[in-house]
Amino acid sequence: MSALDTRTRILDAALDALPADGFEGLSIGRLASRTSMSKSGLFAHFGGQGALQVAVIDAAAARFDAAVTRPVLAEADPLERLKLLAKLWLAWVTTDGQGRPCPLMQAAMSAPGLSEEAGDHARAVRARFHPFVTRLTRRAVQAGGLRADTDAGRFAFRFEALGLAAGLHALSEDPKRVRACAEAEYAALFRDFAA
User: Fold this and answer.
1) Distance (Å, rounded) from C-alpha 75 to C-alpha 73?
2) Which of 161, 151, 149 has its CA nearest to residue 186?
3) What is the pTM of this model?
């Protein structure tokens, strides 16, 4: 097995452990036990707890990009791109083993308890989403899919608030019911701003 394969296996094990352990429970020792590796072997791959946390955040972001961002960017129509983002993000935050609970939200909320480097990185990765939604919104406005007077930042804030609320509610309520409720709210948001 190559070093890259080993690193990928370690990061997959760390991401799989997050729903139960959270970032607070993510340690070289626990991960060594989960992967049947030595602590020194894990340390050789990451160099310490902070670097491990950063790598797990990056691995979570890569999974999010594969499941949500890239398919959205492949959609040609700007309004349909936003609608697809709502659908895929809801699937991400309400599906066990995907983004439930969302590891990027977990990292951002755990930032004060992470290493300084990892905490800053978690906040920076999470902060990329709002400008992304804002850009998609502007393009939908320019293409005539949303009202010309739509404030893209405000729309993006509401859009994001719905997804974050769905992710939070899906932790303690029936995820299918949460997704259905959030889908109805997204439909109402798009109606409110329809051109």
Assistant:
1) 5
2) 161
3) 0.92
